[in-house]
Amino acid sequence: MTTTAPQQKDPVGGDAPAAALHTGTSDIRALITRNLRQSGIYIAFVAIVALFAILTGGVSLSPGNITNIVLQYSYILVLAIGMVIVIVAGHIDLSVGSVVALTGAVSAVLVIGQGLPWWVGVLAALAVGLAVGAWHGFWAAYVGIPAFIVTLAGMLLFRGLTLRVLDNISLSPFPAEYQLVASGFLNGLLGGDGYDVFTLLIGALAVAGYAVSGFRTRVARVRYLQPVESFPLFVTRVVLVGSVVMAFAWQLAHARGLPLVLIILSVLVLAYGVVTKRTIFGRQVYAIGGNLNAATLSGVKVRAVNFWIFVNMGLLSAVAGIIYSSRSNGSQPAAGTMFELDAIAAAFIGGAAVTGGVGTVVGAMVGGLIMAVMSNGMQLMGVDQSVQSMVKGLVLLLAVAFDVYNKRRAGAAR
Fold it and tell me: 327 in a domain, yes or no?
């Protein structure tokens, strides 16, 4: 004789097994504990934002400064998207800063030096990024050289190639159309008295999309008997996230409107969020990083997946190179220096594991924003550059130490 789990009404409006509902305090605590790494990142981000708001007398949260953070650190966030995928697969890419410089240099030579249309420079930069990614992918995936060595060689190779392309000189300025990639804004489309209504509308749509996506995910988890937080806790989370997003949109609306680069970044985050969570390729990346032998035995084409991981990293490095050259209105031989370290730090601070198999695009974005807020806040306070480097280094070390501590504790529990 078989029995079924008792049914009870789930707060989402349907019947679900009672085992799937977590409304008690102990269950909620267990759920939060299982997601401590990711939850801790969000808490740390809010705490850092609040700290620098106090230390700078509110200047860090002013409309103009928030817009400046978006413009100044967008290319690092683009790199972080690709880097977290590389790290999840168990690799590392040390060449992205040099690729940013090379793609920007190619674009500058064609657009500024040869007088070609701005879009030719964009397409050429993307093509170079794809070629660089294929180069790295070939050596790492098919020849079998560790990615650390391949991309270290690439860092030197493509920095030297940048110097050769630019002939050791800087090129500027780009035409106005090219500059709009990183410095353009959408405002005044729907009017507004002292603020941009269109920016607020986009913010509201983003909140609505987040709420609907979260609700659908909750329903699916209940259906498959997976643990979920109580419905009041779910609503509270949506309200808090929505409040932060709308406050951010409100500040942008009172500055210059919606930056075009933020639209580019948002599209990339949404697209790669879907790729990593809802596609076969994304699941294979996590499988390779989590257990290479098991992935191979499961039929995953490891070499092909690793190849396309680096092709993707090259493409996103080119996007970052276009944004950076547009932002700086030119190309310099030293462009992109240390960008790879900022991208790696963003991924690790955002929850990626040093051993691979763990990490999310959203987490990398939060990690990148933590670095951005810290750098911007210390600059506003006039902190010496040497101190800024030390602080960021300590934050990265603590983030990785926290990851190692969690793994040891999980191993001891088994």
Answer: yes
Domain that holds residue 346: 56-187+256-407
The whole-number pLDDT of residue 74 equals 92
Q: What is the CATH number of the domain that holds 291?
A: 1.10.3470
User: For residue range 194-243, what is the model confidence (pLDDT) as tens digits?
Assistant: 778 888 898 899 889 888 988 888 888 888 888 777 788 888 888 888 88
Joined together, the tokens standing for residue 208 give: 């609505």
User: Strand 258-259 relative to strand 185-186: parallel, antiparallel, unpaired?
Assistant: antiparallel
Kindly state the tokens that stand for 124.
């050429």
Does 380 map to a domain?
Answer: yes
Concatenate the DSSP letters of all residues of 274-322 into one string.
HHHHHSHHHHHHHHHHH-HHHHHHTT--HHHHHHHHHHHHHHHHHHHHH
Residues 6+ apart with CB under 8 A from 383: 391
Best CA proximity match to 69, nearest among 87, 85, 45, 93:
45
Each residue of 199-214: b (16+ CB within 10 Å) or e?
bbebbeebbeeebeee
- The total number of residues shown for the chain amounts to 414
- Residue 46 placed within a domain: no
Q: Give the mean model confidence (pLDDT) for residues 257-278.
A: 91
- What's residue 193's pLDDT? 65
pLDDT of residue 38: 53
Tracing tokens 């977590």 back to the chain, one arrives at: 22
Both tokens of 260, joined, read: 């075009």
Question: Does 30 score more than 70 pLDDT?
Answer: no
